[in-house]
Design a protein that fits this description.
The chain is of the alpha/beta class and 132 residues long. It has 4 helices and 6 strands, in the order E-E-E-H-E-H-E-H-E-H.
Length: 132
């Protein structure tokens, strides 16, 4: 399994560095795991959107997004994820691995997204879900 690594470093309005790290791991059939850590916000979410779009355009129709290491998430990040879900072909599947007691889960729940996205607790459950 090949892993691609991409570091994105952004400076916050207060001048403090903050970062986003993404790794991508393909799996068969036609799947990809994108692991994200750090902060997903208006400055960094476009990178996730680009990575998801590139994966879908490359024929990866089973998407696992591991958000268990995310410390912050805003509505722009949510929009990037929903956009990817909408771009999947009919046979495509997406699952997100999110700690159920995390801030990130609270954001998803307050946005009503568990009704349209498949949220699971672990990366392994996400892989199983999209592979079924």
């Amino acid at each position: 399994m090949t892993t691609e690594h991409q570091d994105i470093h952004v400076i916050s309005p207060s001048g403090e560095p903050r970062g986003l790290q993404m790794t991508e791991e393909p799996f068969e059939p036609a799947g990809v795991i994108i692991t994200v850590s750090g902060e997903l916000d208006i400055a960094t979410a476009p990178s996730l959107r680009d990575q998801l779009t590139a994966a879908i355009e490359a024929g990866r129709h089973r998407l696992v997004i591991d958000l268990s290491a995310i410390t912050f998430l805003d509505s722009v990040a949510l929009a990037a994820i929903v956009h990817a879900k909408q771009r999947l072909p009919e046979e495509g599947k997406m699952a997100l691995a999110i700690d159920p007691s995390s801030y990130v889960m609270l954001v998803f729940e307050s946005g009503g997204l568990p009704q349209i996205l498949d949220l699971v607790e672990t990366r392994e459950q996400a892989i199983e879900h999209v592979s079924a």
